[in-house]
Amino acid sequence: MDQVASEVEEIIEKQKSYYYSQKTKPVSFRLKQLQALKDGIKKYETDVNDALKKDLNKSEFEAYSTELGIVYEEISFSIKNLKKWVKPKKVKTALTHVGSKGYIMPEPYGVTLIIAPWNYPFQLALSPLVGAIAAGNTAVLKPSELTPTVSAVITRIISEVFPSEYIEVIEGGVETSQTLLEQPFDYIFFTGSVPVGKIVMEAASKQLIPLTLELGGKSPCIVHHDANIKLAAKRIVFGKYTNAGQTCIAPDYLLVHENVKEALVEEMKQVVAEFYGSEPIKDDKYGKIVNEPHFDRVASYLNDGQIVFGGKTDRDTLKIEPTFIEGASWDSPVMQDEIFGPIFPMFTYSDLSEVIEKVNNRPKPLALYLFTQSDEVERLINSSISYGGGTVNDTLMHIATPYLPFGGVGESGMGSYHGEGSFHAFSHMKSVLKQTTRFDMSFRYPSAKNGLAMVKRFFN
User: Taking Cα atoms as reference points, which of 367, 301, 313 lies closest to residue 337?
Assistant: First the structure.
């Protein structure tokens, strides 16, 4: 056994002992830890901003609005509502259970594993951790090795705030992740790509470990002819090019009604200039691609269609301009996998039936965005297409409210979190029936006279 595996096993054994000591379960303890986490993040907020700038060139505004702010909101929302969430929920009992009481009791899974991605390396590591703490678990946190500066800050925060037998960060690459997936965790929460998600699910299945998979996919953006084009353009550009397109719920491709395509494209060009200037590659507010392999992958998609706007690249700074392309084939590489970058393939349609057919012929997307003023169109799209979650007349914003659970469906993931959804993700809902001792239904026993007749009466 190598040293990493030995250290990991020791950490998990310590966490199991800590969990079974019952220390994590009192609500007062959970609330104290959530507040301590928030205070710890506040202390290192400047370091988090600097790390996000170094690893992904995120501006302070983007870092706060898409990373720190969301984590703060998750913590505050959990602190405010936790006492309500943990209460056992009374349920009705059937006629066959006269005199008994039933309730559903949330209980933590135990020792949990959280594997975070690189695109929102702070938020997507800490938001699930909020749910794990609120539900009463211990946790091992594996941040992404592709954003090492952020990972180091996360390690500093967690090690200062929590003892390792309660919350621990384990940094490392693929081999470390593989070692972690071999361990007997009680729950796994993974955010990342579909291919890696399949590996995680296979590893979990070998030990029958329950899990949440937050994956991705090609999220369509539909702009109908009755949309507010000016506003749609601004909100689409915001959603597509935040973090240089490296967002799991970014609009991946555009389906625009043929009657408004030209107007929309012209508006989006103006918005790009408004957001990032005439040369976005030189704008310090505009993000970079995380590393050279991802840069080369995204840049290769420029060959899959005609460039309508943008297209400039700079490998030295790992930047690719906000780019629109048209004429791509539905079978081309840019339309096979999630782009995860600032290239936006555009297609036109004349009838919504075309949109429904095209989207439904592909794996179920993590997100869908629809721009329309018609309630009928909204109902048609939402009732005809399966997707994880989405927004009408905006992009990304459904992820930013703790009142809406966030998650995928089919190939885009399983399970959901945020707000109460995070508490439920890390909780087993235990069913308990408390039977009366004041009397007994003797007909249920095999020795009862006319027992069968009575049973039939109850169950009919």
Answer: 301
Cβ 34 vs Cβ 78: under 8 Å: yes
- Report the alpha-carbon distance of residue 172 to residue 72 in Å, rounded: 26
Catalytic residues: 214, 248
Q: Which amino acid is at 369?
A: Y
pLDDT in tens, 17-38: 999 999 999 999 999 999 999 9
What confidence tens digit (pLDDT) does each residue in 249-298 have? Answer: 999 999 999 999 999 999 999 999 999 999 999 999 999 999 999 999 99
Domain with CATH 3.40.605.10 in the chain: 3-215+411-432
**CB 403 within 8 Å of CB 81:** no
Q: What is the mean pLDDT of the chain?
A: 95
Sign of the CA dihedral 41, 42, 44, 49?
A: positive
User: Using the 8-state DSSP alphabet, how is residue 365 labeled?
Assistant: P
Angle at 190 between CA 189 and CA 191, to 5 degrees: 130
3-class secondary structure, 10: helix
Q: Give the CATH fold of the 220-404 domain.
A: Aldehyde Dehydrogenase; Chain A, domain 2 (3.40.309)
CA 367, chain centre distance (Å) = 11
- pLDDT tens digits for 296-351? 999 999 999 999 999 999 999 999 999 999 999 999 999 999 999 999 999 999 99
d(CA 70, CA 247): 15
Chain centroid to Cα 125, Å, comes to 10
pLDDT at residue 140 tops 60: yes
What CATH homologous superfamily does 3-215+411-432 map to? Answer: Aldehyde Dehydrogenase; Chain A, domain 1 (3.40.605.10)
Q: How far is CA 432 from CA 20, 97, 371, 429, 458, in A?
A: 21, 13, 46, 10, 22
Phi, psi angles (nearest 5°) of residue 167:
-130, 130
Q: Give tens-digit pLDDT for 426-440.
A: 999 999 999 988 888
Q: Which amino acid is at 233?
A: A
Residues of the chain with CATH 3.40.309.10: 220-404
Rounded CA separation 291/92 (Å) = 56
Ordered DSSP codes for 222-250: EE-TTS-HHHHHHHHHHHHHGGGG--TTS
In 3D, which of 370, 363, 376 has the Cα closest to residue 391? 370
> How far is the CA of 25 from the CAs of 79, 383, 414, 429, in angstroms?
15, 41, 26, 15
**Which pLDDT belongs to residue 94?**
82
The predicted structure's pLDDT at residue 120: 97
